[in-house]
Specification:
The protein is built from 14 helices and 21 strands. By secondary structure, it is an alpha+beta fold.
């Protein structure tokens, strides 16, 4: 369940539609007979330009396969798409007199016919923009779901000089990252500061952990205590990235300076590439950092703990899930099963609240060790599945900050005719207590945020608290 980009603007409309349309809208029967979107091929074919036919396929795929598609008002999707279409025309300086919103009724087939007619009438006069207009229209339709696991993957390019182990970007991480930038910016808390310098332009410019970022391309990262879109520039995506101008403050010296960082490829440190890292802390505490719930992640964590246990007595486990963007729910369940048997770890539910329980895998051997889990706002999706189960089932204690709140449900991929992939949940996720975690996150038992002073001094207050809870004042060795 990898966390994905979303736009929340359409969320209220989607929720309103779900509340006011308890029965399927007119036209649903014929929609169900429309061509389905199959699973992706392997290897995928070459991507072709998006067209109105691809937009229709995505529209019908959402209404037929998305978890709340059966009660979704199609006007939410089509209105969002047409708004984006006209806005892009305006940006390009080619507004079209015929670009008027068609009358929509809520009938899925009738509304699509009206939309397609208006779309063709709008795009035919500007053939040079047709491809771009199709892209922004479909992106807006997907974004109108307001779902953090709904994403249309297209336009993917690989840098010809990029090798396994390369990173791309500015070479830094800040305390506001990942899901906070793309999904839940309202969860970010000032100040914005550097937490890690991995290489690249950031290292070349002399940035250090703890440096406060006061402005990005001339814009404040926070206004009135709320994060601004400027922060997204810290995490550029190839190939459209431009240089990023930063205004910085080093609190230890009071120095203020500006630096322009050029995005590019850089060689990542080995530690950054390792999914699982482990070490033995003083007094028999095993520390394991898990960066993602990838294939075989649970077994790799358990093997790491077993190695630390070989020939000695362990007193507890610190599992560091900070920055863990998620992955496989199966791996989350397997790892949870090393700490409890006979429990429900989560529920996956349909729009009518028919839920499937996800039980522990009781073939996994129990560790029988106290557990402390380190979390932050970068812990998303399957990471939140794990964290909520630890908290609800009292398998251990959570230390750090609240998780991302990016766990609408496992994304299911669908292949579109242009060989792009549209992914979204067919069921939505609830915690073991049937509570909603999406957009809320999982609160820690002990709130221990990192400060710029901590980052600058190389201190980890969350880990220190975890060791205290386990009865150890240990340091790494």
């Amino acid at each position: 369940m990898r966390a994905a980009r979303c736009a929340a603007a359409g969320l209220a409309l989607v929720l309103a539609a779900a509340c006011t349309a308890p029965t399927p809208p007119r036209g649903q029967a014929s929609t169900s007979a429309a061509p389905v979107c199959p699973p992706p091929q392997s290897p995928p074919g070459a991507e072709t330009p998006a067209t109105i036919d691809v937009i229709e396929q995505a529209y019908r795929c959402i209404l037929g396969e998305y978890y709340s598609g059966s009660v979704l008002d199609p006007r939410v999707l089509l209105t969002a798409g047409f708004v984006a279409l006209t806005q892009e025309l305006n940006r390009e300086g080619h507004d079209v007199p015929e670009a008027t919103m068609p009358a929509l009724t809520g009938d899925r087939d009738t509304d699509w016919t009206a939309f397609e007619t208006a779309y063709r009438r709008t795009t035919d006069p500007v053939p040079d923009l047709r491809d771009k207009l199709a892209v922004v229209t479909l992106e807006a339709i997907v974004a109108a779901l307001g779902d953090d696991h709904a994403v249309w993957t297209h336009g993917v390019e690989r840098h010809p000089d990029r090798y396994e182990g390369d990173g791309y970007g500015l070479g830094l991480q800040a305390n506001v990252n990942g899901p906070q930038v793309t999904v839940n910016p309202g969860t970010a808390v000032p100040p914005l500061f550097v937490t890690t310098v991995a290489g690249g332009a950031a290292r070349a410019a002399g940035l250090r952990p703890g440096d406060v970022i006061e402005s990005i391309n001339g814009s404040a990262p926070f206004i009135g205590g709320r994060a601004t879109p400027a922060i997204a520039a810290l995490y550029p995506r190839y190939p459209e990235a431009a240089p990023v101008r930063l205004r910085l403050l080093r609190q230890s010296t009071g120095r203020r300076w500006s630096a322009t960082l050029e995005p590019g490829l850089y060689e990542q440190d080995l530690a950054t590439l390792q999914t699982v890292q482990s070490k033995l802390l003083k007094d028999g505490v095993a520390y394991v950092r898990l960066r993602g719930f990838s294939t075989d992640a649970a077994n790799r964590v358990l093997r790491a703990i077993s190695r630390q246990r070989d020939g000695r007595t362990l007193t507890g486990v610190v599992l560091d899930l900070r920055g863990n963007g998620g992955g496989s729910p199966t791996e989350a369940v397997r790892l949870l099963s090393a700490f409890a048997h006979g429990k429900t770890t989560a529920y996956l539910c349909t729009v009518d609240d028919t839920c499937q329980a996800l039980p522990t895998d009781d073939t996994v051997e129990l560790l029988g060790l106290p557990l402390v889990v380190l979390t932050d706002r970068g812990c998303a999706s399957a990471c939140e599945h794990f964290s909520s189960a630890v908290k609800d089932l009292r398998l251990g204690q959570l230390v750090g900050t609240r998780t991302a709140g990016v766990i609408s449900g496992p994304g299911q991929p669908h292949l579109l005719r242009d060989n792009t992939v549209l992914s979204f949940p067919s069921r939505h996720h609830l915690g073991p207590g049937r509570e909603t975690i999406d957009r809320v996150g999982v609160p820690p038992d002990h709130h221990v945020p990192q400060t710029p002073e901590d980052a600058a001094g190389g201190r980890d207050p969350a880990l220190t608290k975890a060791l205290t809870l386990l009865g150890s004042e240990g340091t790494p060795r």
